[in-house]
Design goal:
With about 650 residues, the chain is an alpha/beta fold. The chain has 3 domains: about 120 residues, no CATH class; about 290 residues, no CATH class; about 190 residues, Alpha-Beta Plaits, CATH 3.30.70.1230. A hairpin with a 3-residue loop joins β10 and β11. α1 crosses α2. It starts with a helix and ends with a strand.
């Protein structure tokens, strides 16, 4: 009992250690394991797309692309701001809801061309321009004091004063790297940053919705556009760093006002829920196409029905100009798509949520408790099988949370905890079972036949059971051994008994018998346990016959050597007994008890020297198979009635 208790305690410690170890590994080698977990999440994005196609897409989000085919219409050396002005005018004519340029208009062109663009932007009142913020020592280009002053004055109207209800660690810019050229910047609907940073493995998965600058916050380009689109002013935005942003009383077109709650991390980053690959997510229009129809009212009218009220993101995705990076859904992904997906995630309210550390610990703890139960309840083989099922169920559960509820869980850490538990428990169980088998073999090899012992080692619970069974019991005893031993040296007595028992044990084991004990010069064995034997009684009688034959061989040999003229008596009975491992914890014997045992012992005492005496119960089982003769009735001590007994005829 204590052995099992100690085993359970060790298994408990191993499982606890495995899960604690998985957490320590994540802390000590956070770079490796965090990256691994992020890669697993990326794979989940790809599987989701393969299974369900593209995600939710806001129908009024479109891309206007400057791509390689655009430059077949407009040669790069012919490009100037007047072309951009014509496209802005065309989009304004199409009555789009907003135009966000993911293109830096930092350098002015010719004065006339600049004015064309300024007039178009000023007349549109819906064009948003990007800016780039600098951090640390990377503060941006050197500028004159006057330019720096002008930029700071301009930014005073661009930064948001947000209500921060829960502090965090927002990204804080130290300067301005890039702004639109001075004459243009003040005519747009707003400025937003396009700073985007990959995770440590180089994959873009999140974007800061705003960055702290001086005493306010600069929103991202598309976040600013979306807030204007849903009619939420900066004063109606409430920030809880590490939890969420609330856009109070947001008004989507044709819908009632409601709060939009956007989950963010401690830095103000939102996880981007990519709707799909670049080519299968949003509608795309060619910049050249809009340029071609800019002066054709009839063609503009046909397109107006398609783009009316749309939010447009304009970007250069041509070879050599496009900013590309890795995304969860696709490698070599145009980075302008991140900004579109930010807008799409907010407008569709299809947010991704990361489980809090406490909820993740709760999952780890639940898994740990489950496998502790499994380990203590089931054997090693079943444990391994069930742990694999638990692992598959956990992966299915994590997939369900992501596919249907947009919840991201840490899959790698629990997976490592489960795998470590599986490995450690199996290694321990293997070592433990080898030791236990060795102990059982050492302890019982003198009682069981090798074939029986091998069966027991495969089903050790049999040794822990006690039950009633009908067995056949055999007793043997050496006649006049006590008198002989008193005249012999201890060494002679020992060697004689050892040689005798060695030969008798071989015969018992030959017929699958179990040696119960050696009693002085006597031997007790039984048949029919620990495994069922259909011919147990016949095997017992055959054992007795062969024992007598072997004893006669020993007698002839020993007499020629001047040793013991050995003669034995054998008694056999069949009846119901209690069989099992009995004793106390440090001294257990696998034995049988009951009146049937006592009768067998009494029959041995009544048996003729060099003879075999059996009970009527044995006679019924071997009648016609063994030559016997009725030997009358005998009165046995402790038995009220006289019993019919039979003697086995020996050749």
């Amino acid at each position: 009992m204590n052995t099992n208790k100690n085993k359970h305690i060790r298994i408990l410690i191993l499982i606890l250690g495995s899960f604690i170890g998985s957490h320590l590994l994540f802390i000590m080698f956070s770079g490796v394991f965090d990256t691994l977990d992020l890669r697993v999440r990326d794979y989940a994005f790809q599987v989701r797309y393969q299974l369900f196609g593209r995600g939710k897409v806001y129908n009024h989000l479109v891309h206007v692309d400057i791509n390689d085919s655009t430059f077949q219409v407009i040669k790069p050396h012919e490009w100037d701001y007047s072309i951009d002005a014509r496209v802005v005018n065309a989009l304004t004519e199409l009555n789009v809801g907003a135009i966000a340029y993911d293109m830096l208009f930092s350098d002015p062109s010719e004065a006339e061309e600049n004015q064309d663009l300024i007039d178009a932007v000023s007349g549109s009142k819906r064009v948003y321009f990007p800016m780039v913020l600098g951090f640390g020592d990377n503060r941006g280009r050197p500028v004159s004091p006057q330019t720096a002053y002008n930029e700071e004055e301009f930014m005073k109207d661009q930064v948001w004063k947000l209500k921060v209800s829960r502090g965090g660690k927002p990204l804080s810019a130290s300067g301005i790297k890039i702004l639109p050229f001075p004459e243009l910047r003040g005519h747009g609907a707003g400025i937003g940053h396009i700073n985007a940073y990959p995770d440590r493995d180089g994959v873009y998965r999140r974007l800061p919705l705003f960055i702290r600058y001086n005493d306010g916050y600069v929103p991202s380009l598309t976040f600013r556009m979306v807030c204007d689109y849903v009619q939420v002013a900066a004063s109606n935005i409430e920030v809880f760093f590490g939890q969420h942003i609330i856009l109070h009383d947001a008004k989507m077109p044709y819908q009632k006002k409601e709060d939009i709650i956007i989950p963010i991390d401690e830095q103000g980053n939102m996880i981007v829920n990519f709707a799909g690959p670049w080519g299968d997510s949003f509608d795309h229009f060619n910049y050249a196409e809009l340029l071609n129809v800019s002066d054709d009212n009839e063609r503009l009218g046909r397109i107006r029905d398609v783009m009316d009220g749309d939010l447009v993101l304009v970007a250069n995705v041509s070879t050599g100009f496009m900013d590309i990076g890795n995304s969860p859904i696709e490698t070599l992904y145009p980075l302008c798509g991140i900004h579109t997906n930010v807008a799409n995630t907010i407008l569709t309210k299809d947010f991704l949520y990361e489980l809090s550390i406490w909820k993740q610990i709760a999952i780890d703890t639940s898994l740990m408790a489950l496998i502790i139960f499994v380990a203590l309840r089931f054997g090693t083989l079943n444990f391994s099988f069930i742990i694999i099922l638990v692992l598959m169920a956990f992966l299915a559960f994590a997939s369900y949370l992501f596919f249907y509820h947009n919840i991201l869980t840490n899959i790698v850490r629990p997976y490592i905890g489960l795998q470590l538990s599986l490995i450690m428990v199996n290694i321990y169980s293997y070592i433990y079972e080898r030791q236990e088998k060795a102990l059982i073999r050492h302890r019982f090899e003198c009682y069981f036949a090798p074939s029986t012992l091998n069966k027991i080692l495969r089903s050790r619970k049999r040794l822990e059971m006690s039950e009633k069974k009908v067995l056949t019991i055999i007793f043997s005893d050496i006649s006049s051994f006590t008198l002989w031993s008193e005249t012999q040296t201890p060494e002679e007595v020992r060697s004689t008994l050892n040689e005798y028992f060695e030969e008798m044990s071989k015969i018992v084991f030959k017929y699958e018998g179990t040696i119960d004990k050696y009693i002085g010069d006597g031997l007790m064995a039984f048949y029919g346990d620990p495994f069922k034997m259909e011919d147990q009684t016949l095997c017992a009688v055959k054992t007795a016959i062969e024992m007598q034959q072997k004893t006669r061989e020993l007698k002839r040999r020993w007499q020629s050597q001047g040793r013991l003229p050995i003669k034995i008596r054998i008694g056999i009975n069949r009846g119901e007994v209690v069989v099992g491992n009995m004793g106390f914890e440090r001294r257990m014997d696998y034995t049988v008890i009951g009146s049937a045992v006592n009768i067998a012992q009494r029959l041995e005492a009544k048996a003729p020297v060099e003879g075999i005496l059996i009970s009527e119960a044995v006679q019924r089982e071997v009648k016609g198979l063994v030559n016997t003769k009725f030997n009358g009735k005998v009165a046995l001590k402790g038995i009220e009635e006289e019993l019919d007994v039979y003697e086995v005829k020996l050749v």
